[in-house]
Amino acid sequence: MFRLFKFLKPYWWMVVILIIATGGQVFATLQLPALMADIINNGIVTENTDYIWQTGLSMILIALASAACSLLASFMSAKVGANFARDVRKAIYEKTLSLNIVDIKNYSTASLINRTTNDVNQVQEVTMMMLSVMLLAPMFCIISLIMAFRTAPDMTWIIAVGIVAIMTSVIIIMSLVLPKFKIFQKLIDKITLLTRENLTGLRVIRAFNNEGLEKRKFEKTNDELTKLSIFLDKILKLEGPLVNIIFNGLTLLCSYIGISLLNKDFSYLGNMSAFAQYVTFVMMSFLMMSIMFVMLPRANVCAGRINEVLKINSKIKWQSQTKGVPDKVASVEFRKVDFRYPGAEEKVLDNISFTAKVGESTAFIGSTGSGKSTLINLIPRFYEATSGDILINGINIKDYSKDDLMQKIGLVPQRGVLFAGTVKSNIMFGAPNATDEQVKKAAEIAQAANFIEKLPGGYNAHISQGGTNVSGGQKQRLSIARAICKNPDIFIFDDSFSALDMKTDAKLRAALKPITDDMVVLIVAQRINTIKDADQIIVLDNGKIVGKGKHKELLAKCKTYQEIVKSQLSDKEFAKEMRSVNA
Amino acid sequence: MRKENKKGRSTGKVIKSFARFLISIKKYRFWIMLSIILAIGSAVLGIFIPKILGDMTNIAIDTYPNIDFDAIISKVWLVVGLFVGSATLNYAQAYILTVVSAKYTRELRNQIIDKISRLPIAYFDRNKYGDTLSRMTNDIDVMTTSLSQEVTDVSLSLSILVGVTIIMLTISVPLSLVSFVVVPISVLVVGKIMGHAQKYFVERQNTLGALNSIIEEDYAGQNIIKSNSHENISIESFNDTNFKLGKITMKAQFLSTLSMPVTHIFTNLGYIAVVILGGIFAIQGKLTIGALQAFIQYVSRFNRPITEIASTTSTMQSLLASSERIFEFLNEPEEEPDPEPAKTIEKIKGEVEFHNVNFGYFEDKPIIKNFSVKVKPGMNVAIVGPTGAGKTTLINLLMRFYDPTSGYITIDGVPTKEMKRADVRKLFGMVLQDTWLFNGTVEENLRYGNQSATLGDIMRATKASNVYHVIEALPKTYHSEISEDSDNISAGEKQLITIARAMVANPPMMILDEATSNVDTRTEQLIQDSFEKLTHGRTSFVIAHRLSTIRNSDLILVVRDGNIVEQGNHEELLKAGGFYAELYNSQFSDN
Questions:
Q1: Pairing mode of beta strands A332-339, A349-356
Q2: Are residues A335 and A478 in the same domain?
Q3: Is residue B503 scored above 60 in pLDDT?
Q4: Which domain holds residue A562?
Q5: ipTM over the 0.85 cut-off
Q6: Which of A433, B28, B455, B461 is deepest in the core (most CB within 10 A)?
Q7: B422 and chain A in contact, CB less than 8 A
């Protein structure tokens, strides 16, 4: 939590003003009871009306000063709080964007989003509270104590009694309740989970006629939650009445002690009510601080989650300027590349070597876990090879600056990812200077032009957040158009065709052919049909290359490849394929 | 003029939702009334404390210097009795409300879950899950916390207010008037400020939503941003919204904290006026010192409930907003009830027939037009067509997730419309592309369609669906916890489990979706193999993607833009040279 306070640094002068204003406010407020005691003792008892008016006037001035201070404090704390939250959000966002998949593999997107928004809000709230309560309460407490001591030194022990009483009650209640809060939170999560399940599994639940079962499951958790929340509330609700008893008891004690001291000093008449007010102030500040301590652990958890992200050091270091001059001709070469996840024993990729030449297409095929997606993710350095070298246009990827390397790569991921904006802004995502002609051309090649023209607004049609207003296949075609529009040296299709039906797949590949003459094309695919015509097919199994060659060569000699082909064709077709190899 | 209209309508709406809310808590009216009475009792007892303390001072002054301690001690015990009594009553009412509000929210939650199972599927196809989920979580949460708090606060505050007013008036009418004057002014000013703050809070909520969307999108598309060197532009747009959020937060925050110093200044001014005037009255002998001290205490007690009631109005607003959202959901029109008495099928043969079926998701956009087909028992039907052509519509109709606009579907000659939905659905096993598994053990998931299945039945199914070894390899085998997003098993293995689940249920007919993207080839082979076992000898409807399935099926329904454009078997359709032939040639032949 306190580590995040470095984000307050640019606003230190606001914090200083805040502290001064808060102090002023406290000091002013606390003068009022003393002055009131003066009015009673010096004004009423001596029947001095002028004195009352004079003191009254200074009370008004002090009240106004106090209000001014508290206005200033409110303004500063709002400003500091808002700026603080803004800066923390910005830091997390920029950090996250700068990290690579390998760095944030252990965090789900949802959790990263939560850290950027909810956690920051929590921390902001507590920081604001700390800035007001943590400053205000101790000051209030100390000044009240001093004032109390000055008005009635003989009675200060009452305060000690009060503090002990308040602290004990708060500690007892909290120690009863806090351990159960974790369970409570878990039950709340479970309610959410069950509701979510009921919604996402709607069709399955109805298909199996299991509405009743689901309801019973839910009701069980709901009952547990209800029981626990009654238990917690029963204890928590004790606090109000208890605090009331303590406050009233103290006030009574002040009056009684004050009266019994009258014989010694008649000024206790006015002092005892002033004193009673100070006692109330001291108790209030203790209460506020105890609330603070309840909130702090929760905020600490959030702050911890934020710090966790901010602390991640990217494992991938980029050159600020590309070392050496890359070839004009596109090429991709892997030299004895190994990859394993940090801390893992098993290699995901083992001794991978191959060369992909310009104008040719290289396809990767293999079962899940064979490492083909990982292999492709090494090229834009989303992951870093554990050993071995990867060369692009003749230069090691580690010698490139980030922008130079990325500019050479056109990546189409497994799932079409779009951004809010227009069709055009999405296609131009990697090529901000593309002309309308180029955008159109890219869409045509990607087989997207037809549906785009049917959209209201055509290329200017609105794409909603995450591209939810176009279908999965359309999304995929738009993300292919985006890569085409960039006109890269190296095309990477990471299983990009499986969201398309076979007809569109075939058409798209045919349209791509003419423009890829001066490019290297890398394709990860599931379907044999998609890669059959590739110039080079690399068959992966358990991270190793088990076959390399053209379709027919592999059919003839690579067992893994045969298995894959067989699984996708009927026996008759497979036999036909094999005959064509032997012919 | 128009603005007034709008306001009038919204006031009507508020009253309506308030009334709906009151009706829903009617069941607890006895307990709520009791707790209000207890709250009033607690407040009344508490009110007398300062007055008696003042009396103590007066006794002391009157008998000074020979203070009558006996009289004072008796007053002390009276005060102790009062505040202990007041606190006890206070706790009793809090206790009652705690139980009431917990029970009430439990009931609401159950009602929502129940409602989910009663709403037509169409509702969820139109509305986002997140929205319903948020009603269950956020809105219920608002209701629980504010309900018990509000009833306590309002009843306590009101009774204190009334009681204190009366006592203050009995002590001194002019002093009371002075303190009363301050109240409406401060309430008015604070109300104005809060109104402004509310505006900014709404704006803040909206901006926060916008920022959330940006973050969500950018985090999900991080690789694309990176590989297109788009970071700077993304950061710029994030900063724009983030900056705006900061500014609005500041305004909202400042205005809402402003109410504190503003109330304070008015309270203080009132307090000072009372001290000055009271002092003068005391000198003039119109007021005892004890009474003045008591009065000063009452002034501070008088101010607190007023600020509390003022803050209640804003929580009340959010309570009403939430209850409105909950009741809106609970009032959604439900599925048409099942016919009474419903027809049943004794011994199922598995003949399915569509009779002149017309259907559209929207009334003005018919999708299926006058479609008829007869599926004989045991036939395998393949539904084919390009992506997004509407192949699932047929399944929606078969399972009665939707009903045809006109025409009807029969099973063994019995119109499904005249059967109970549950009875129709019992006849079909369903394996969809979306592999929904709930949080629970493997065994519980497999048993989902047939609670009385034995472990032997389950193992037979897992063997037949080729998932036996996968489950055996899990650390706790059949007792391993799995869920929709658990990653200890792959997508393909999840699909195999859903197949096994359908096998355990052992229904007479099957509905399958073959689309298995992101599944490796070997698993795909296993899936295909178990699909074949599943459809063997059963009437089955398959959304087909594999050539072998399509060719071997007895009947192919070709879907295009939602319509069924052709039907027949593979050879017939090829010969016809229509859309199917085109589709087939472009996809599967070697040109």
A1: antiparallel
A2: no
A3: yes
A4: 321-408+488-583
A5: no
A6: B461
A7: yes
